[in-house]
Amino acid sequence: MPASTLKIATFNINGIRSRVGALCHWLAREAPDIVCLQELKTADESFPAREIRDAGYGAIWHGQKSWNGVAILARGEEPVEVRRGLPGDPDDSHSRYLEAAVSGLLIACLYLPNGNPQPGPKFDYKLAWFERLIAHAQELFGSGHPVVLAGDYNVVPTDQDIYNPRSWRKDALLQPESRDAYARLLAQGWTDALRQRHPDAPVYTFWDYFRQHWQTNSGLRIDHILLSAELAPRLRDAGVDRWVRGEDHPSDHAPAWVVLGPAARRKRAG
């Protein structure tokens, strides 16, 4: 890949301690420049920083024992932490949000709550967290900085993003409130890179472990990479590393990624 391009990926690893070998294999094979990880399921002190450093990546992370957890990796450099935790609720103890400056971009890694079962307090928390994200994303978008919002959003935006919505209608991922929140986020001006690049094709990032869903390609698209107005014109490609889901002892997600071209040169005055 030319040095002037950037490959940015998001991957719900579903337990980094048990899958660090698979993670490093993917990093070696696909060589993304920036990676957002979700669902680390480990405390900060147990994060496999040495293995990731040996793979050629700097990292920052926001862990939580047994649950949640997010990290940002950068190939050949150290991400500079900007924010730890989503603003708007000082009592929220979940490790679900991390921001860093990497390669001239602001990278926001997020793990939006699942929300099941719904209705109930978990769904209420999901929607409240989503509103906080929308408010913060508006500030980021309005800043004029080149921003990437990447992660597991736990939202199937439309029926086009699921193999068959019939048996999922009661799931929190497909509720009208969840979809409306995602639509309002996009309405700020963000570009959904995977859908922009593949407007008509079925694109999935998640296949659960039940009912042979991987074997029958019965997937969902819930991992999204959103680009700010400054970055959208630089979108060159986007896709999913599906092969990762077919490996031994896989996460139920596969990495989604985008490739950004070089920034346009500023014209000299005069």
From TrEMBL:
The record marks 154 as: Transition state stabilizer. One of its GO terms (molecular function) is double-stranded DNA 3'-5' DNA exonuclease activity. The record marks 253 as: Interaction with DNA substrate. Its cofactor is Mg(2+); Mn(2+). Probably binds two magnesium or manganese ions per subunit. Mg(2+) binds at residues 12, 39, 152, 154, 252-253. The active site is at 111, 152 (proton donor/acceptor), 253 (proton acceptor). One of its GO terms (biological process) is DNA repair. PANTHER family: EXODEOXYRIBONUCLEASE III. This is Exodeoxyribonuclease III, AP endonuclease, family 1. It comes from Cupriavidus taiwanensis (strain DSM 17343 / BCRC 17206 / CCUG 44338 / CIP 107171 / LMG 19424 / R1) (Ralstonia taiwanensis (strain LMG 19424)).
